[in-house]
Amino acid sequence: MADIKIPETFLWITEQDVCDLIDLSGSVEALEKGLMLEADGKAVNMTKTQTLWDVGSLNVTGAQFTGDGLVGAKVWSNANLGAAPIIVMHGANDGQIYAIVEAFALGQMRTASLSSVATKWCSAPDADEMAIMGSGHQALPQVAAIDSVRDLKRVRVWSRTPANRDEFVALLRDAFDFEITACDTVEEAAKDCPIITTFTRAKEPFVFADMISPGTHINAGGAIIPTNAEIDQGVLDRCDKIVCDNLAQVQKGSRELMEYAERAGSWDAVIPICDLVKEQKPRPEGADITIYKFMGMGLADMASAVEIFKRAKAQGKGHEVPHPHRSKPRLT
Fold first, then answer.
1. Of 3 and 154, which is predicted with more confidence?
2. How far apart are CA 111 and CA 103, in angstroms?
3. Cα gap 3→322, rounded to integer Å
4. Alpha carbon distance 263, 207 (integer Å)
5. Class of the CATH-defined domain 9-107+298-322
6. pLDDT at 302 over 50
7. Residue 132 phi/psi, 5° resolution?
8. Amino acid 86: pLDDT
9. Are 38 and 67 in contact (CB under 8 A)?
């Protein structure tokens, strides 16, 4: 076997580069392509690995995109609400570093893209109103995600902290033309609302079956560690379709779905979003509730990162950084 030629440099792609190179629609397009590859067995997700401590967590996700000659991993720590994620991309055939991508904006767009794709196939085609529950840094991209696939006319906002809710309402009113309504309770936000997105740090369920009207689609994006939950089991019992980003991942990380599967005796009712995209089937006629549970998937990050890397190379973006070269370790 020939010796691997180590490149002199690799590409460092900054947050600003990412924002210059791709927008939400581009991220959605890259995601759908990646999900189709996964459904066809041509891309493979790496199940999220995580370790927890009293104020945070260390997280690693990743994926193979060997058809594009790339594999990669995203690594980040959450500590006291702070994070600085990066994606390291290697060559699938030589193991060398091809790029490091700063991934905060990428992650926001990736998460929004997952909601966008799920909502396109699970919500009623004429749905024109959503409720967003939670007002953190993911909330604005989540509203944009739903607006990209449904003609929104009204958005309801609920947050556990009224001051945060009101600040977010003002932000939405600056960003969008549709009606924005501040809600004092979860019940008020959920009542007769066809699309509900939750993105909170709730420790216990706060969305219950008696709050949800028939015909609703829910995007459940919070509760990404096994100690947390947003959605009560009664909601899942009413679901005609339960979709997740990655089955192996929710089997070890989603308290809501782990409890549901334990009661059901199997995971048969839970399908991955790649199958949803491959099916290309709209919401079932007369469906009661559908839900999409997503926790952040390495394949989705890599789908965006691969597209960003290709665009960066084509447009001369990013910064060349010296590639690591081996030195002899001191063993004695």
1. 154
2. 12
3. 20
4. 19
5. alpha beta
6. yes
7. -110, 125
8. 97
9. no
SS (H, E, C) the chain: CCCCCCCCEEEEECHHHHHHHCCHHHHHHHHHHHHHHHHCCCCEEEEEEEEEECCEEEEEEEEEEHHHCEEEEEEEEEECCECCCEEEEEECCCCCEEEEEECHHHHHHHHHHHHHHHHHHHCCCCCCEEEEECCCCCHHHHHHHHHCCCCCCEEEEECCCHHHHHHHHHHHHHHCCCEEEECCCHHHHHCCCCEEEECCCCCCCCECHHHCCCCEEEEECCCCCCCCCCECHHHHHCEEEEEECCHHHHHHHCHHHHHHHHHHCCCCCEEEHHHHHHHCCCCCCCCCEEEEECCCCHHHHHHHHHHHHHHHHHHCCCEEEECCCCCCCCCC
Chain segment 31-72, per-residue pLDDT in tens = 999 999 999 988 999 988 889 899 999 999 999 998 899 999
Is 111-293 in the same CATH topology as 9-107+298-322? no
Which tokens belong to 285? 């006629």
Task: Give me the residue label for tokens 């104020």.
Answer: 55
Domain ranges of the chain: 9-107+298-322, 111-293
Tokens 């019940």 sit on residue: 187
pLDDT of residue 2: 56
CATH number of 111-293: 3.40.50.720
Residue 198 CA to residue 160 CA, distance in Å, equals: 12
Query: What's the pLDDT score for residue 108?
Result: 86
Q: How many residues does the chain have?
A: 332
